[in-house]
Amino acid sequence: MTRFSKTVLTWYSDNKRELPWRGSRDPYKIWLSEVILQQTRVAQGMPYYLKFIERFPTVSDLARATETEILKLWQGLGYYSRARNMHAAARTVEREYDGSFPTSYKALVKLKGVGDYTASAIASICSEEPTPVVDGNVYRVLARYFGVEIPTNTSAGIKYFKQLAREVMDPSSIGDYNQAIMEFGALQCKPQNPGCETCPLNESCKARQDGRVAELPVKLRQKKVKTRFFNYLVYLDSHKKTRLQKRTGKGIWRHMYEFPLLETDRLLEPDEIYSTLNNEDQGGEVTLWKEEPVVHKLSHQHLITRFWIIELEEEITHGIPLEKIDDYPVPVLVSEFLRTFKNSYF
């Protein structure tokens, strides 16, 4: 065991958080927690984990659920492809493994949405397979401690850090070690304001010695953020019914529900919205919900959004009652509007 791994394990035994999936060797619970916590903070992901475990206590229960049920429960976490991949993986486990979740890296990495990190975490924790995990927390710890300047989001960086993680890991206690180094990055070697003064590795940390803690790890700049203009058409009839549509295609929020959408290259005026309506709907009254548009920021997109209320005299054919709209999984952007709108409308 290297001094590095021994120190991290000792720190972990004294500082680890009590989490509902920690200490479990149930691969389903470990997998569920890892999927939920990808790109999600523990404080935000914890309630979702608890809801999913309560609703779907086994992978077979999850496999038998509908996609709409899963997306609704996932609503608010973002990156909805994670939920769809999770559902597909559960169905694969049910179909090909009779509902018995695999624990080998080789089998795990073949499941939809399971990459090297998740497969390594499950295999090491559940079956002590000696494979190291490398996530954002691990990249940060290794880059700072060893002073590595190779960008983490390049093929060379991914390969280098995986090998470095393998060299410093403790294979005799790999499940605990993998959890320890991730926890160390989350709590001690944080992205901002890391606890360098109290860090048990501070005397041998290369980044601290060189005054470069804030500079590491290195990450190449991502794609330019794209700005899009969304106009949601919120139809309402005298029976308090509205229209929703399901998003298709491979863009954001696939298979989620939303109001009819008009995407434009700029903000529109009421008469311009009115001119886009079909003849049947042009008898309705068009009003802007709020003058100031909602700016919804995604990883590579900023959505400049306005909600247009279109009140119709005739009943909407196959309309959805507003009191039942919560049954449908919708993006946070729409959910936040509905929360405010329904409070004032009813």
Kindly identify the CATH topology of the largest domain.
Endonuclease III, domain 1
Reading the helices and strands in chain order gives HHHHHHHHHHHHEEEEEHEEEEH
- Large-scale geometry: elongated
Report the helical percentage.
40-55%
Category from helices, strands and their pairing: alpha+beta
Mean pLDDT: 93
- Calculate the terminal CA-CA distance, rounded to whole Å: 65 Å
Query: How many domains would you count in the coordinates?
Result: 2
Top CATH class of the largest domain: Mainly Alpha
Task: Say how many strands there are.
Answer: 9
User: Mind describing the biggest β-sheet?
Assistant: 5 strands, mixed
How many separate helices? Answer: 14
Strand content: 5-15%
Low-confidence stretches: none
Q: Would you identify the CATH architecture of the largest domain?
A: Orthogonal Bundle
Whole-angstrom Rg? 24 Å
CATH level 4 superfamily of the largest domain: Hypothetical protein, domain 2
